[in-house]
Amino acid sequence: LTSATWGRFDVGQLSQRIDALGEIGALPTGGLFRGLYDDAWAAAVDQVEEWMRQDGLVTRRDAVGNLYGRVEGRESGPCVVSGSHIDTVRSGGKYDGALGIHAAMAAVNALVADHGKPRRTIEVLATAEEEGSRFACNFFAARAIVGQVGADEPERIADPQGVTIAQAMRQRGLDPSRISEARRDDIAAFVELHIEQGAILEAEGIPLGVVDTITGQRVWHVRLTGRQDHAGTTPMDMRADALAGAMEIAGRAREKAIAMGRPSVATVGRIAVQPHQTNVVPGVCDFTIDARHSDTVRRRELVDYIESTMKRVAAERGLGLESRVVQEHDPVPMHPLVCAAIEESIAEMGVRSLVMPSGAGHDSEIMASRFPAGMIFVPSRDGRSHSPDEFTPIEQIVPGVEALARTLFRLAY
Ligand SMILES: [Zn+2]
Questions:
Q1: Nearest CA to 348 among 110, 1, 103?
Q2: How would residue 310 be classed by pLDDT, with cut points 50, 70 and 90?
Q3: 85 C-alpha to center of ligand 1: Å?
Q4: Cα dihedral: 306, 308, 312, 315 (round 10)
């Protein structure tokens, strides 16, 4: 197979489609927002469906609004699926999620044009929801596909205006009692192209990333309770300052993550003190800690260190400690056969690649619970993402599409 065989997707069309989809949900203040089942979301799904039909794919939507575009294979049996999510964060960019859908459409176009019907059926997938940005229901769409949506979720989870998922589904003609019908058992492999959303590929000058693991995470909500006192009259050695305790915990968590090295990360992203006055020693401090690592044992080490540090600091400073784990999952490995197909494809192109963990969550981590899954990363300029500044130039997207096309060829032809 020569490289020339793979260059036949229309780069101009790919560019145009990226820009056109990036206009749907554009905010006057910059960036864009497509929340699950809102008007921009619906318009974006309609637009992608129209493109899929133009490309000759047979489209259908499932019970939660996931959009599939299908090329029937010569053989019956499980199919190969590629895509990503169509929803965005608030004030997000036009590459996160969307690029995986564009890349899959372009790759399938190129494959069918050059090689005709595949042996296995290939489907392009636009998942309905990944970000949790309208409803706190992250990975709703992929969880529906693997059968992991809780029965109470549609009625229980509401957006900031009080509209439940169930109500929003009905407004789009979807029946929340039929969510289980979105479940699939016939996927041979799932491949997702995504922007890196970090700056490692760019810094290393490497064009493509092959994801080996999606990072494990723990998020705590922590409350330290000390004693509210006069900031002028209370000597430093007589205080029980809740914020001072939080600062020590945050500082030590950060030092530990630095000492462990990449890809260990620990972040205090939210902090609030009471009573929040210049002349009062804080009596209460609420904060979050988000700790991640892509290795199960090392993630445990980081988490255990933070747990024991919280207890020790609270005890030493005479502070009350309440901590609650609000999110926790182990690292999710990508499937070795899919990773190998991606790596061989990139090697064949004569392009350098970096095997790397993903520090962000993706649809692939959910899909991996039931199907062999793998991911290709393209660079993000300055590592920017979840921001209107998110950008990947088309010259850096094209090799990703080619790698995806070659990977799908290996898996489906
Ligand atoms: Zn994404």
A1: 1
A2: very high
A3: 6
A4: 110
